[in-house]
Amino acid sequence: MSDRDREPRFRRGSRPGSDIHTRDAKGRNHQPKHGSARKSRETGPDGPAVLYGWHTVTAALANPRRRIRKLLVTENAARRLTHENITTPISPEIVRPSAIDQRLGPDAVHQGLLVEADPLPSPDIETLTQEGIVLVLDQITDPHNVGAIMRSAAAFAVKAIVTTARHSPEATGVLAKSASGALEIVPLVLVQNLARALAGLNDRGFMTVGLDSAGSENLASIQLRQPLALVLGAEGKGLRQLTRDTCSAVARLDMPGHIRSLNVSNAAVLALYIGASRLGLMH
């Protein structure tokens, strides 16, 4: 029976799923206190980050830096957690699938799991390691695209994603589901002024390459070096002029077919593959 099918009732006062292990840092059961809000885009307008879906939630449960406030699970999901020996930092609340549907809407594929959690802190851009690749997002606002980009970033071991505190989607809900656990892996660095942040990366030795269809060179033909920052603009608008002017190079992605432009999340994958291959990061 799927999580969307009707599930059996449980007795009032009973604790279905109580065989799921709960733990804290010392192995004791506990209920975390509510922490103060930290600098992040994970908090939605109503407070904590809302995470749902199997990969998204189990990655959050496994992240010791993530403070879980509430965990809603269906009986089917509770059995799966137990079967796969996945521990939870707090005791789950067993609910019907319809209770999660009411929180998210009927079209959300939650797989019987929903978490409310404190946001992860946003690192300072000056703390980024001067090696490998970082991605910089210039006002990409679609949460599906940003989530897909984060998932690809995790696959290519990207050191961080830099984006603006404004004009970027909240790292919760749809974005988190699209990221499929990557929120717990790739640091999300928030800045107030993207051009100033890029100038800072230039000063710290990063090669900053903006991706634009009007770029003067093909990305595959540029001599790339570490640390590398690949800068992606929003679909339609592309890179803003000040962003383009601040990059150390502006490159295009050449393709042989009749359609020469890609969805921004697909462009990110291609750029990361080219970058990682040219830098010798593909092991």
Secondary structure blueprint with pairings:
Blueprint: E1 49-52, H1 54-62, E2 68-73, H2 75-83, E3 93-94, H3 97-104, E4 113-117, E5 133-138, H4 143-155, E6 160-164, H5 173-179, E7 188-191, H6 194-203, E8 207-211, E9 217-218, E10 228-233, H7 241-246, E11 249-252, H8 264-278
Parallel strand pairs: 2-3, 5-6, 5-10, 6-7, 8-10, 8-11, 9-11
Antiparallel strand pairs: 1-4, 2-4
Helix pairs in contact: 4-5, 4-8
Short description:
This is 23S rRNA (Guanosine2251-2'-O)-methyltransferase. By secondary structure, the protein is an alpha/beta fold.
Alpha-beta content class: alpha/beta
Instruction: Give the N-to-C terminal Cα separation.
Output: 41 Å
CATH superfamily of the largest domain: SPOUT methyltransferase, trefoil knot domain
How many structural domains are formed by the residues? Answer: 2
Q: Average the pLDDT over all residues and give the rounded result.
A: 85
Poorly predicted regions are: 1-46
Cα-based radius of gyration, to the nearest Å: 21 Å
Structure description:
Its EC number is 2.1.1.185. It is an enzyme of class 2 (transferase). The protein has 283 residues and is an alpha/beta fold. The protein has two domains: 13-121, 60s Ribosomal Protein L30, Chain: A (2-Layer Sandwich), CATH 3.30.1330; 125-278, Alpha/beta knot. Helix content is 27%, strand content 17%. The protein has eight helices and eleven strands. It has helices at 54-62, 75-83, 97-104, 143-155, 173-179, 194-203, 241-246, 264-278; strands spanning 49-52, 68-73, 93-94, 113-117, 133-138, 160-164, 188-191, 207-211, 217-218, 228-233, 249-252. The strands form two sheets. It has a seven-stranded parallel sheet with strand order 7-6-5-10-8-11-9, sandwiched between helices. Helix 4 (143-155) runs parallel beside helix 5 and helix 4 packs parallel to helix 8 (264-278). The longest helix is centred in the last third of the chain and has 15 residues, at 264-278. The chain is elongated, with a radius of gyration of 21 Å. It starts with 48 loop residues before the first strand and ends in a 5-residue tail after the last helix. 42% of the residues are buried.
